[in-house]
Design goal:
The protein is an alpha/beta fold and 185 residues long. It has three helices and eight strands; from the N terminus they run E-H-E-E-E-H-E-H-E-E-E. It folds into two domains: 98 residues, 2-Layer Sandwich (Double Stranded RNA Binding Domain); 84 residues, SHC Adaptor Protein, CATH 3.30.505.50.
């Protein structure tokens, strides 16, 4: 874990820096991938403020606490951050377990809300085109991204196959997975 500690409106303190780094280091047991953590310790109008921002596994976790004592501010913000990371990890684990049921084949038609407008014969027709940024990710990562968003679907490049895939939210709160079938015309 890469940790940066910044001091604002106060002198640098090796003891505070080491204390903050040790507290952040305890979070390694909850995070699998390399993580960037930023700690900002500041003083404003007799308040000691500790702010922490952690970028982990395509998620950003933030916390801020202020007290009369900098050490207690660090303790309080780290408790808050630890709760958020535990919750995030539980979501990841539950998605990899039973909560995601992705059928091998889609057996029912998929309702699609269209913004397309079609006209009758002789009139002009217009189709609204949207450009989507799709990036390589696994099916589990795409399902996690969809669960954390308000979208109905996510278009992504499957990191395992290199093909364009779609994960969508079903009415029964499970996810559907659309895999294109290559057929020649």
């Amino acid at each position: 874990m890469r940790v940066s500690v910044t001091f604002r409106h106060m002198d640098n303190s090796d003891a505070l820096k080491k204390y903050a780094e040790d507290k952040i280091g305890r979070l390694n047991k909850y995070v699998y991938n390399p993580v960037d953590a930023s700690v900002v310790l500041s003083v404003e109008k007799h308040r000691q403020i500790a702010e922490v921002v952690i970028n982990a596994e395509k998620t950003t976790i933030k916390g801020r606490e202020s007290t009369e004592n900098m050490y207690s501010a660090i303790d309080m913000v780290m408790e808050k951050i630890e709760k958020q990371i535990k919750k995030h990890k539980e979501r990841l684990v539950s998605h990899k377990a039973d909560n995601i049921r992705i059928p091998a084949e889609i057996t029912e038609p998929i309702p699609i809300k269209r913004e397309d407008t079609y006209s009758q014969e002789g009139e002009e027709s217009s189709i609204i085109t949207k450009t989507l940024d799709s990036k390589p990710m696994t099916v589990d990562e795409a399902a996690m991204q969809l669960d954390m968003s308000k979208s109905e679907f996510i278009v992504f490049i499957n990191a395992d196959t290199g093909e364009m895939n779609v994960i969508y939210r079903r009415k029964d709160n499970n996810f559907g997975h659309i895999i294109p079938k290559n057929t020649s015309i």
